[in-house]
Amino acid sequence: MSGLLNPDWGFIQEHFDWLGHIVEGLVMAVVVAVIARPLYRWRDAALIGLAFAMGHFHGREKRDYEVSVQMPPPHLNGYRMWDWSWDQATDFWPTAIVLMAVMYAAYRYRR
């Protein structure tokens, strides 16, 4: 029986996995921005964090694709994102789009 206190994690994983990746990407960007903040202004640190998070997700999904198709090194075909599975694409693309939109807003932000 699922409910508020005992959610159906299988359903969430199956239908809302993409949302978890977006939240993870945003949290990762904030962590990297906080680490970068002593060296950069907040806006620049935020841009660094967002770029790092987007690169992380691309690398992770590329690796997952290479493993799933047992691709031998040097893994150059793993960069062909149009060959990824639907699950890999829905992990990467929504996250990249949201992070890029936040990055654009941070870049355009003026005090």
Automatic annotation (TrEMBL):
The UniProt keyword set, sorted, is: Membrane, Transmembrane, Transmembrane helix
The transmembrane segments are: 18-35
Q: What is this protein called?
A: Membrane protein
Q: Which organism is it from?
A: Shinella yambaruensis
Upper lineage ranks?
Answer: Bacteria, Pseudomonadati, Pseudomonadota, Alphaproteobacteria, Hyphomicrobiales
